[in-house]
Every structure is written in structure tokens, then in C-alpha cells.
Amino acid sequence: MKRIGIIGLAGVLGLLLAVFSVYGLWLNRVAAAEAAFAESRYPEAQQRFLSAFSGWHLYLLPDALVAENQARVALNLIQIGYVLGQYQETLEFIQKDASMASLLSTPEYHFWTANLTMARALETPDANIAEVLSRSREGYLRTLRQDPEYWDAKYNYEYVSMLLDRLQGDEAHSEEEMKLLLEKMRTDMPRRRKVLPPEKRK
After folding, report:
1. Using CA atoms, how far apart are residues 150 and 2, in angstroms rounded to an integer?
2. Which helix (H) or strand (E) holds 71?
3. CA distance 79 to 65
4. Cβ–Cβ < 8 Å for 71, 94
5. What are phi and psi of 201, to 5 degrees?
6. pTM summary value
């Protein structure tokens, strides 16, 4: 009986060791992705984050162990999608992946969804700009409800409200003028703004 207990204990310890070994590997993947992101190697960072977000490691790890880091990985993927101009793909990624529901309580999720909605509209010639502005403003408002001190969200909320007032006042704007106005939108990536790809620099 005592021997069976020792074998059972050894099995449990072996399982715990395996779990923490896999967890260490997963954390290393996340760290490598974040290093690539910090150095503006966006395509590489995106692939590494995707591997960490949906890799085989997650099937072996309890949710409680990875939830916080996985949320950060998801937010980084959203930001990279914005930087790389993958607006539609990133919005579909947000909408299709069930795990994104856990981000609804984070202000960053609503901020970046609003940014992506706005940027996507600029690529769509027949987009109803007033409707897009209203949806984006609602996203910034959700951000501010969760974090009243989110300064970029405050700026964008006020700026979008100003654009809506202009449109509702029948002030005509050409598509080019509207693009120039919307390029003044802010993101919360000041560290990386100077090293964006040339086509994204303002």
C-alpha cells in the first residue's frame, strides 16, 4: 500500500514537472515574440505570437496558468495587425476567435477595435463614413468607461466627435480631405511610432 502511494506521488510530481517544463517553453516563445515586437520586426513577431496564441503548448496547460499572458499575446497580435495594415484580417480574427471574449473587460481591446474599424473604412471607397465614425466613437467611449485616464482614447473620442459634428453640419469633405483628417488619429504606441514601416509613417 505504501509502495502504491509512493508511485502515485511520483506520478503526480512527474506530471507537475512536465506541465511546468511546457509552461517554460511557452513563456520563452512569448518572450521571443515580444523581443521581435519591441525591435519592430513585425512579421516575425506576428508569427511568433500566433504560435504562442494557438500552439500545441496550450492543450497541455491549464487556463489559469496562461490566461493573463495569452490576453497580452492577443492584444499584441491586434496591434501588429493594425501596424501591418491588415485591418480586415485582424477584425475577422477578433470576431471569430472565442477566446477574445476574455478581452472585453480590457480598455485596450475596445481602443484597438475602434482604430481598426476606422482604418478599414479608409480602404473602403463606399464606406458610410458617418456610420463608421459613430461605431469608432462608441469603441473609444467603452475604452474610457473602463479607463477614464486613457489619453489616446480621450483624444480620439473628442476628435471623432468633432468630425461627426462637421458631417452632420453638412460640411462637405472630399475623400482625400477625410483621409488627411483621420490620419491625425492617435494610437498608444509612442515607442514604436518612429520606426513604423515607411508607408505607415505620418
Report:
1. 59
2. helix 63-83
3. 24
4. no
5. -75, 145
6. 0.72
